[in-house]
Amino acid sequence: MSLLRIVFGVLVVVGFVVGLAFLGERFPKATGQAVFMLMGGGLGCLGVWTILRCLRSGVAGGSRWGRYYERSVSPFNFWSYILLYSIIVIFGFTLCLSPFFVPKFLY
């Protein structure tokens, strides 16, 4: 089952990239705007999900480095991570909305 999911995911990503390549050839400005909106929206949504997960569990930090910051044990570090994630979310949604409000930004 997991191999089928991996193959399906790879096919979806390859199809997405091929579709963007064909759209980029025919509509270069609109494709750039679509890429900005998708990347920024994805980054923003991932950041919101991370913030909500951290607030629900009460733990923020990276699992690869073994540094977990609990809200009750080290509140300064916990809220610093929440602030960092919030800045990333603002950047992502700004990137997502830039084609609407500043369309000459991409030209």
| Beta-strand segment tally | 2
SSE sequence, one letter per element:
HHEEH
Instruction: Please indicate the count of domains.
Output: 1
Largest sheet: 2 strands, antiparallel
CA gyration radius, whole angstroms = 18 Å
Enumerate how many helices there are, as a single number.
3
Helix content: over 70%
The whole-number mean of residue pLDDT values reads 86
Q: Terminal Cα separation, in Å? A: 44 Å
Principal-axis shape equals flat
As residue ranges, the low-confidence spans are none
Structural class by helix and strand composition: mainly alpha
Describe the structure.
With 107 residues, this protein is mainly α. It has one domain. It contains three helices and two strands, in the order H-H-E-E-H. The chain has helices spanning 2-26, 28-57, 75-101, and strands at residues 59-62, 67-70. The chain starts with a helix and ends in a 6-residue tail after the last helix.
Helix and strand layout, with pairings?
Layout (H helix, E strand, L loop, with lengths): L1 H25 L1 H30 L1 E4 L4 E4 L4 H27 L6
Antiparallel strand pairs: 1-2
Helix pairs in contact: 1-2, 2-3
Could you provide a short overview of the structure?
77% of the residues lie in helices and 7% in strands. With 107 residues, the protein is mostly helical. The chain has one domain.
